[in-house]
Amino acid sequence: MARLKDIAEYVGVSISTVSRVIQNDQTRNVNPETKTKIWEAVKELGYIPNQHARNLVTNKLTKNKTRTMKIGWVANPKQVETNPYFVNIYSGIHDTLTANDYTLISITKDELENETLLLKAIHELGIEGLLLIDRIDDSLIEYIQQTIPVVGLDFFYTDKNIAVIDYNREAAIKTVVQHLISQGHREIGFIGGGLNESFEDLHAEYRFKGYQSAMEEAGLAIRPDWVINTKWKMENSYEEMSRLIKRDRAHLPTAMVCASDLMAIAAMRAVIENNLRIPEDIAFFGVDNIEMGKYSSPPLSTVEIPKYEMGKMAAKTMMEMVEEKIKLPIKLILPFELVLRESSNIKRT
C-alpha cells in the first residue's frame, strides 16, 4: 500500500509537502501545479490517508472490522427538495436504510470534486458506501470504488461499470408513442431535456431516442420545430410551447410526448392560455406519474415509474454490497406502465 514517502518520491517533493497538501494545511503555501501533481499521484498510487480508510480496504478481509453504518448520498440538494421524482427516490433510500439502522449522509457533487473534501468524505466521515444520482466524473468513480462500493441511479450511470438501479427510458417513451399512434396520432412532437453539463445534447438522451425510434419504425416524420429542448426547466417548457403555437397555429402537432410530468404540465398551461383544448387540439403524455399530474387540468396521462422502489432497491443493493453479500456490479431495470388519463383520451380518426 502506498505511503507518503512513495508519493513524495513520485512527485519529486518532500514528505512534509505531501502531508501539508493532503491535510489541507493552509499555514504554508504550496504551488498549485505541485498540488495537482500530488493529488494525481494519490489517485494513481492508491494512497489511503488514514487508518480508518486503510481498514476499509484491508479489513474487508477480517471478521472484526468496525462498522460505521454510514452511507453517502450524492445528489443535487435542490432536486431532492423540490422535484417529486427525486423526492420519492430519496424516501425509498432513507426509509430502507433507516429501518436497517444505517445513517444516510448527504454529500454534494462539489465536495467530491474538491480533492481535499473528497478524501474527507470517504476517509474521515467513515462512509461505507456511496449512492450516486448527481453526475460525477468517471475518474472519481474509479477512485472511490477502490475503497467503497458505489451504486448509481438515473440515466447518468446506465452504461457505467457500477451497480445500477434504473428503468428503461427509451422503451418507456417508445411505448407512449406507439400508444398515441394506435389512437390515430401521426403528427407527434417531443418535449424533453438534453445531456451534458448544459443539457444541450438532446439526441443522446434516452427518452428522445425512444421517441425517435418509435416514429421511424412507424414511418412518421419528425419535425424539428416540434421538438423542444427545455434543458429540464419548467419555464422553458411553457415559453417554448407558447412560441410553437404562435409561430404556426394552423399547423400544430396533435400530440406532445414529454420526458417528464413537470415539462408536460408547464406546456399544457401554455396550450390552455392560447385557447386550445387538451386533448381535442393537442394531447399530452408525460413520464414519472408525480402526484400533481392527477390534479392538472385535464389530468395528465403518464408513465408510472417505480420511484420509491428504485430508492428502496438501491438501498438494499448498497447494504448487500457493504455486507459483501454481492460482489459484482449488478444492474436492476425496474418495470414501468402507462397510466391513461384525460389529457390523451380521445381517439383520432
Automatic annotation (TrEMBL):
GO terms for molecular function: DNA binding. Residues 2-58 form the HTH lacI-type domain. Transmembrane segments: none annotated. InterPro entries: HTH_LacI, LacI/GalR-like_sensor, Lambda_DNA-bd_dom_sf, Peripla_BP_I. Keywords: DNA-binding, Transcription, Transcription regulation. It comes from the Bacteria. The keyword Metal-binding does not apply. This is LacI family DNA-binding transcriptional regulator. The lineage of its organism: Bacteria, Bacillati, Bacillota, Bacilli, Bacillales.
